[in-house]
Design brief:
This protein is α/β, with parallel strands linked by helices. The chain has helices at residues 2-16, 29-32, 42-52, 69-83, 94-98, 103-119, 137-154, 184-200, and strands at residues 22-27, 58-61, 87-91, 123-127, 158-159. A five-stranded parallel sheet has the order 2-1-3-4-5, with helices on both faces. Helix 3 packs across helix 8, helix 4 (69-83) runs parallel beside helix 6 and helix 6 packs parallel to helix 7.
Length: 224
Amino acid sequence: MLLRSIATFLFVVVSGAPQAATLLVWGDSLSAGYQLAPQEAWPVLLQTRLEERGFPHRVINGSVSGETSAGGRTRLPAALERHRPDVVVLALGANDGLRGLRPQLLGVNLEAMITAAREAGARVLLVGMQMPPNYGPAYTQRFAQTFRDVAGRTGTPLLPFLLEGFADDPAQFLADGIHPTAEAQHRILDNVWDALEPMLRQDAHRDRPLPVRQSAPNSTTRTP
C-alpha cells in the first residue's frame, strides 16, 4: 500500500512537471554566426532571451555556412529524428539567391521542409530573404515573392526579411558586405523575436503557465 502511494505520488510529480521544448534553427551562415565568436550568433542570444522571459525552450542551432535550400532539405529528416523539435525556424534561401538559382526550386524545397517538420510534430516559422538590387528587379522580386507564396500556400507564419531594418547599412556588416557583425546579431534577434514569440506563447504545453508578454523593438525600415 505504501509503495503504491509512493509510486502514485512520483507519477503525479513527474507528469505535472513542465518539460523543456526544443527549438531548431535551420539556416545558413547568417544564422551560423559566420566569423563570430560562438556566443555572439543570434541563436545563442535567442537562448538567453528565452530564459530571461520565462520560456523553457532549448535552442539547437543546426545552421551550416554555405547551405542551400536543397542541402537543408536533404539534412533535415535526420535532424528532426534526432532532436524532435517543437518549433523549427526555417531560415534558408540566401545562398540560393546569391547563386542565382531558380526561385521555383527554392519554393519547392521550402515547402518540402515545412511538410517534413509538421509531419514530425513541429510548428514552423519561415524566415524570408531579399537579394540586393544588382541582381535585377525581375529576379529580386520573384525571389522575395517566393517566401510569401510558400507562406500563403502552407499557412506558415512568415518573417519577410531576416535583415529587416539594417540591410542597407554597411556598418552592420563584416568586410565581405554579406555577413552581419556581432552588434547586428541583436537586431536580427529582435526581428526573429517579433515573429517567433506569438508562436511560443501558443506552445503545445498549454498546461504550463505562460510568461507575461514583454514588448520588443519593432523594425522601422524595409530595404529593397
